[in-house]
# Entry
Amino acid sequence: MRTLVKNIKELVQVEYQTRLRVCGKEMSQMQTIKEAYLIVEDGKISDFGPMSELKEQTFDKEYDATGRMVFPTFCDSHTHLVYANSRELEFVDKIRGLSYEEIAKRGGGILNSAKATAAASEDELYDMAWQRLEDVMHLGTGAIEVKSGYGLTTESELKLLRVIRRLKENSPLTIKSNFLGAHGIPMEYRGHQEDYVDLVINEMIPLVAAEGLADFIDVFCDQGFFTVKDTERILEAGIKNGMRPKIHANEMAVSGGVQVGVKYGAISVDHLEQMGDAEIECLKDTETMPTILPGCAFFLNLPLSPARKMIDAGLPVAMASDYNPGTSPSNNMQLILSMACIRYRLTPEEAFNATTINTAYAMGVSDILGSIAVGKTANFYITKPISSYEYMPYAYGENKVESVFIKGRRI
# Structure
C-alpha cells in the first residue's frame, strides 16, 4: 500500500538524521518543510520533501492537505488509562481545601479507584479503556504508556495488566505496559508497609513476569507513599524479571526518587514538581528522561516543575498527560502542549519536542516514532486549516486535528 499526502501547507518536525531524544538548546530547534508532500509505504514513512520535487508516480491512495499542516502524532508516556470510576467527589473535597495527601490518608485517592477496580470485571475495564483509547487517537495521540496501579492486590493488578495486554493486541496504537503495584499502600498495610512491599516482590512480580505482562516497573517514591529503601527493593526485583524501571518522583516532596531512578537506570522519572539543584545535577549525562506532568500540577495546584532551568542546564524534558481519574482527568495532549508554553514558558518548538520525540524516548520507542523521518512508523495527523504551527499551542481547548493516520492508515 502506497499513500501520498500532497500540498501540505507545512510538514512539521522532519528529521533527516534521526535522534533518540533532544536535549538542552537543541529542544528549541525544529525543522519544517513548506508546501510539502509525504509518502507512506507499508505503514512506514518512505519519503517527504517539497512539492516541487515530487516525481510523477502511482499511489493506492492520495490525500490533499491544502491549507493544512502535518505533524507526527503525540506520544503520551505516562497514563493510568485503565480504571473503573471517576472521582469528582474528591475534586470537590480539593476545592474545599483538603490536600491530596489528606484524601489518601482517609482511604480516598488511589484506594478509592482500587476498590472500584476490584468490583469491575476484566471485560468492563476493557470496554471503558477501549473508548478512552478511541478518544485519545482522535486528539492526535499515536503511542501511549498505560500503567496498572489501581489494583493493589495480586488479583486486581493482574486483571489490569491483562486488560492492557488486550488493548495492545487489538488497538493500532503503540502501547507500552507498566506494572505499578507500588502505587499506594492498602489500608490493611498501614504501619507495616514493608509487608506490602514483600507482597509486590515475592508474589506480584513473579506472576507478572511469568505472563510477560509488563514492559516497565514503576514505584510511587514520595512522601507518604514508598521510601527510597522500598523503591530499591522493588526495582531490583523488577530488573531481575526483565522490566525496565520508571519512577513517580518528587510530586509531594524532594523524596530521593530522582536519585534512585538514576541509580537503577530508569528510562524516566516523572512528576518532578519538587526539584532542587541536586536533582538537576543528578540527571546530567544520564539516560533517564525527566518527565513533567502539567495536567497533575494544574489540577492539584502544585508547584511547577522547573522546566526552563532543566533545559538551560542541558537536560532533555518530556511532558505527558498523567491521564487518570484522580489527579489529571484529561487525555488531551494538545492541552499539555499548550500548558508547556503557557505555564512552563517553553517555546512552541520546545513544547513539540517535549510531547513527541522526548516522550517517545520515555516509552522506549523514539527509534520508530516521535518525528517525521524515513523508516519511522507513519503515525501523523493532518490539522484543520490553521495559520501556523504556533497556532497549535496557542488555541488551547480547541481540537485542531482533522484526521489521524496510524501505521499509515487513516482512522
Summary: The chain has two domains: 2-72+371-410, 75-363. Residues 2-72+371-410 form a domain with the Urease, subunit C; domain 1 fold (CATH 2.30.40.10). The first strand starts at residue 2 and ends at 12. Residues 9 and 35 are 5 Å apart (CA to CA).
